[in-house]
Amino acid sequence: MNAHERILVALDFDNAPDALALTKKLNGKVGGFKVGLELVNAVGFEIFSMLADAGAEKIFYDAKFHDIPNTVAGAIRAAAKRGVWMLNVHACGGSAMLQAARDAASDAENPPLLIAVTVLTSIDDARLNAELRVPGVAETHVTHLSKLAQDAGCDGVVASPLELGAIRKACGANFVTVIPGVRPAGVGSDDQARVATPGQAVRNGADYLVIGRAITASASPELAAVTIAEEIANA
User: Fold this and answer.
1) DSSP H or E segment with residue 122
2) Who contacts 184 (Cβ-Cβ below 8 Å, separation ≥6)?
3) Buried b (16+ CB within 10 A) or exposed e, 84-96
4) Is 59 helix (H, G, I), strand (E, B) or coil?
5) What count of Cα atoms within 13 Å lies in the side-chain half-sphere of residue 198?
6) Is residue 190 classed as helix, strand or coil in its secondary structure?
7) Residues 67, 49, 83, 164: what is their CA dihedral angle, to the nearest 10 degrees?
8) Would you tell me how many other CB atoms lie within 10 Å of the CB of residue 188?
9) 69-80 and 95-106 helices cross at what angle (nearest 10)?
10) How far is CA 121 from CA 3, 64, 179, in A?
């Protein structure tokens, strides 16, 4: 995989024109585009065909489905018809939900990669313990959820860059890792708690890096993407 193909740009916009304009600027400079809940709820599901028309070949639908198995399976079947390349569910939905999601994705005409979200990168150890009542450190819980997802047939997980070593040890080299919480040196962490630079994430074993504001808020998104790709290549 070429360095720039590891970059998934987060289209965290509340309107189609900004998302489409950035997609056109970055085509060929990044590996794909992440569509999350803000953009889908602002524009509607037609955003997927609009992005495809703008040249987006790989779309990661960051839906984070989390419900009973039957409901999630139905949502996965519907989402797969949108032609998305990758979509995700919450690993904490449990093995039955993950298996139902996997079965639904596999039945699609063009099966998308199914990725399970482990622990959100905005959650630190203190919050994990005090608010979610999960004991221990995030790495332990992330590793447990990663194995749960792998055993259920998921293609990979979403996790912070700090847990990559443990995930690779537990799940092997072929388990896909999608990593948010990536911040180039000198860029603030914003609302993320568990972060790393692109180079650190790739050295730790990341397959794909989800990068938003470091590119989308840049005065030159194209230059920002190229610079991050160079850092990835050097790593």
Assistant:
1) none
2) 197, 198, 214, 227, 228, 231
3) bbbbbbbbbbeee
4) strand
5) 29
6) coil
7) -70
8) 10
9) 30
10) 23, 14, 9
Cα dist. 58→111, 117, 141 in Å? 13, 19, 30
- Catalytic annotation, residues: 64
* pLDDT tens track, the chain, 235 positions: 899 999 999 999 999 999 999 999 999 999 999 999 999 999 999 999 999 999 999 999 999 999 999 999 999 999 999 999 999 999 999 999 999 999 999 999 999 999 999 999 889 999 999 999 999 999 999 999 999 999 999 999 999 988 999 999 999 999 999 999 787 755 554 555 556 789 989 998 999 999 998 999 999 999 999 999 999 999 8
Residues in CB range of 68: below 8 A, 6 or more apart:
97
Phi, psi of 7 (to 5 degrees): -90, 125
Residue (of 193, 111, 203) closest to 159 by Cα position: 193
With b meaning 16 or more CB within 10 Å and e meaning fewer, what string describes 42-67?
A: ebeeebbebbeebebebbbbbbbbbb
Q: Which two tokens stand for residue 145?
A: 């959820």
H helix intervals, the chain: 16-26, 37-43, 47-53, 69-80, 95-106, 125-130, 138-151, 164-171, 198-203, 213-216, 221-234
Query: How far is the C-alpha of 155 from the C-alpha of 85, rounded, in Å?
Result: 12
pTM to 2 decimal places: 0.93
